Structure formats: structure tokens, C-alpha cells
Amino acid sequence: MVSTSRGIALLLSSSIALLLVAFLSLMDETGGLVLLVTATLSFSISYLLIHLSLEFLVFREISNIYNVLEKIQKKDVTIKATKKMKASLPPLRSLQANINAYAAAKNREIETLQKNETFRKEFIADISHELKTPIFAAQGYIHTLLDGAMEDHSVRDKFLKRAAKSLNNLENLVQDLITINQIESGFIRFHPINFDLRESILEVIEQLEGKAQKRGIKIDFQYDADSSYISYADRDKIYRVLQNLVSNAIKYNKEEGKVTIQLSHNKNHLSIKIKDQGAGIHPDDLKRIFERFYRVEKSRSREKGGTGLGLAIVKHILEGHKSKISVSSIVGKGSVFSFDLPAGNKEVPPG
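That's the histidine kinase sequence above. Prediction below.
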């Protein structure tokens, strides 16, 4: 009873009334009726004031604080600010503010843990599937050879080449996993230098020209011959970004289509756009194509090769340059990937 606001108010008001009556009883002129009225009024007024003060200023706020603590214990820490918090006593207001801040931090921590758990499960499922494909393929070819196909030289050579290709795909997957893990962990450092971005794009085109010709795809590189395209960035990593995007533009293009690469100079940065004439990307997929192992039309993507990590690596490399990759696409007409890089000095040091 004493632990409630009424019990405390009753105890204190009774004590105040008794003390006041005891004090007045020391005076000879004070009659019994006066003492009774004084005791009644002092008890009633004290009880009301103490009870209301405790109930609305202390106990209600303490009850709210206990509710918050109970929610934290149950991992339900959704905290909403209320006007009552502003009306509470300063010590309780400060305490409640601290608890709310703690609850909000715990809420973020729980959300992060839940996201990490979901990501971990998805990642394990994805990596298991991605590793299984090349391993089973190579294993199948080798076991077929061991079961008697070794004698047929044409079959042997064909199966060994296919097994080697599967193992190469496995190696590429492992290397991409190592790369993306190192970038995310901060183990890979970026070493920006001044270099000619146009020359890097021309090198990528030269490297992938044979791949494009096999599918009858034309690569159109558009730039202003009179402009300077010196960028200040990590040349090797940007080369990998360009290589991945141009390779994808060729891989997912239509037969005898065209890949357009646009390079332009805008104030203090350089802009690169890479367009293809492929099937395009559905709006629902656009939000996720930079996730690890996310593939649009998974069966067709695996037929075309790749590890499913290329765009994730591209995203991380550009984020390391304080830039970001953008994509727009129209289903049936193709996609456009674009990003910016900081412009560098016009004079490039030799070598």
C-alpha cells in the first residue's frame, strides 16, 4: 500500500495533520473543535496535493520508464516521443531521455543484427549454390573420363577443356570473393593518380573487341577529341570497373547490337555512360542488381558465365572514390550504367 501514490499520500498527510494538531494543542486557547477542523482540513488538503503530485509528476513517469525497460527486455524497443515527457520533472525528463536514447540504440542494434542474420543465411545459400555449379561440372567430366572415356582422345580433350573451364570459373569466383571481402574490410587501399581516362577506356575496348566481334556487336566510343580527360583516381581499380561494365554490355546485348560509351567533361568531374541494346532490366530488379550473387534471369546469366559479384565490386570501388554507380533501363530496349570520377591535373607525369 505504501508503495502506491495513495499509500504515500495517506501516510504523509496523516503525519502532517498529526504534527499540526500536536502543535496547536500546546496552545491553551485552542479548543477541541478547532483541532478537529484543523486535522480534517490539513489531512484533506495534504492528501490531495501529495497524491496528485506523486501520481502525475512521479509515478506516471516512473510507470512509463518501467514500460520502456520492459519493452527493452522483450526486444520491443519502438519508442515514440510524447508531450508528457516535456511536462515531467527535470530529473525524470533527463532519465527518460537517456532511456529513450538507449532504447533507440538497442533498436538499431537489433535491426542490424537481424539484417546481418538474414544476409548471412542468404550469403551461405548463395555461395553454396555458386560453388556447387563449377565443382559438380568439373567432377562430372573427370569421373566420366575415369569411367572409360579416356581412350577416346576427342572426348577426353573435350571433357578436359570443359573441366578446366569449370575450374577457371571456380577460381574467378574465389578471387572475386576475396576482392570484395578485402574492399569491404578496408584491407585494399586506393592509390589515386592522375591518368588519362580516355586511354583506359580504349584499352578496355581493345581487350574486349574480340568478344564483341564474335556476337557481331559494335562498340561506339564517343568523346570530344579536343578535350582533356585526365582523372584523379585509382587507375587499376577504375580499369576493372570499366572492364566489368563494358563486358556486361557486350554479354547481355542483343545479337549484332551496339555498345555506346560516352565520355564527357563536366566542370570538376568526368562522366562515363555505357549503353547497351539488350533486353533491359525490370524495375523490380534494378534495386538489387548491385547485391552479391543477385542475377537477373538466373538461368540465362549462368549460361553466359560470370560470378555474380562483378557489379557488387563495381559499386564498392566507386564508393571508395566517393562516387556511385547509377543505372536506368527500359525493358526490351537496353540499359545505361553511368558514374562520375573527379577530374585531375591536365599534365600527366610520364610513366
